[in-house]
Amino acid sequence: PPPGPAPAPAPASGAPAPAAPAPAEQPAPPDPRKDLAERIADEKGWRQSTRQGIQYLALQFQATQCNKDDILAGNDDPALPLVTCSTDHKVAYLLGPSIISGDQIANASSAMNQRGIGYVVDLQFKPAAANTWADFTAAHVGTQTAFTLDSQVVSAPMIQEAIPGGRTQISGGDPPFTASTARQLANVLKYGSLPLSFESSEAQTVSATLGLTSLKAGLVAGAIGLVLVLLYSLVYYRVLGLLTALSLVASGAMVFAILVLLGRYINYTLDLAGIAGLIIGIGTTADSFVVFFERIKDEIREGRSFRSAVPRGWVRARKTIVSGNAVTFLAAAVLYFLAIGQVKGFAFTLGLTTILDLVVVFLVTWPLVYLASKSPTLAKPAYNGLGAVQRVARERRAAAHVQTGRA
């Protein structure tokens, strides 16, 4: 793992003494065509130089690069000076060699300061580092020191007095620490230097061509499934099938909008497993429509008109729809939290489409079908496709009248 937080002297302006002459050329950024080791070596050559002239130019150049990814992150030599930026990408620093490594920090915690206004970070060094810290602070009163993690400055407080005993308190500057920022800094100082190791649970190498082919195949499969559902709905349910199509379009638009927002704000990427979850979600949404429409048919078979069957069928169908979607969502949630790799992508999109299915059925499908039931034109069997069901209802009523007459 990269070196942990380490204090080092850092002048407020970041500028060294102007004794050495400046070189004629400004250091150039690493060439991306080189391999990683060469690029890191080039970066160290000018950002960790011991020549003051190069340090000065490196500081000026690094100030324009703070908002970019740092290739030197975690790869610097703690025994050499370092030109780097703060973690908020606002300030460039010239740091001296590290004097204390992160594993010498015994504990760090956040608390409200003694005046009850604002927050501070309490830091405790281990005994070996406590003496080093005491000597360093005594020799550098009135100057800044820096705490770094992955080669970036997480805090650069001013040394106000010599600090013996190994206990140090960092108070916020401008702006002062809030409870959140103090806790965050304490966690960085406390856990940033842990010797963590990672085990790979899953690794796949997919060529760009193969990945694009798989993505296109998944999208084509989803489009075919959607078209088949729409054709079946239009042939079997007619006007109700058209309302199904409108509901599916609304559901698809909401899914697309949410995925775009997730991609923009949390860098979510839709993979092949996620597309599979979307395809299953189409079937789940279609199931809800079928349950609703079949309940309407049941009401018509019992002798009710299309207009009166719709609200009664909805009351009976919505419980089944909610129960079915709840089971699907719980299954998706279990998969998401317990599974790894691509299964999580499948579970995420399945759960998302399940929630949106309920939104669409309650806010789009049901209102549209209810409005259709109020239309005299759409109530005709030729438009709603319920002629066979209505004939069965008439035959049952006729049979009931015959039996009553015989009795």
Automatic annotation (TrEMBL):
Question: In terms of one coarse class, where is the protein primarily found?
Answer: membrane
Please give the residue ranges the record annotates as the region Disordered.
1-35
Q: Where in the cell is it found?
A: Cell membrane
Q: Name one GO cellular component term.
A: plasma membrane
Domain named Protein export membrane protein SecD/SecF C-terminal: residues: 197-371
Q: For this UniProt entry, which segments traverse the membrane?
A: 217-235, 242-266, 272-293, 321-340, 346-371
Gene3D superfamilies for the chain: 3.30.1360.200, Multidrug efflux transporter AcrB transmembrane domain (1.20.1640.10)
Question: Biological process (GO) annotations?
Answer: intracellular protein transport
Give the membrane topology: Multi-pass membrane protein
Q: Which GO terms describe its molecular function?
A: protein-transporting ATPase activity
Keyword terms of this UniProt record: Cell membrane, Membrane, Protein transport, Translocation, Transmembrane, Transmembrane helix, Transport
This chain's protein is named Preprotein translocase subunit SecD
Organism encoding this protein: Mycobacterium palustre
Cite the source lineage. Answer: Bacteria, Bacillati, Actinomycetota, Actinomycetes, Mycobacteriales
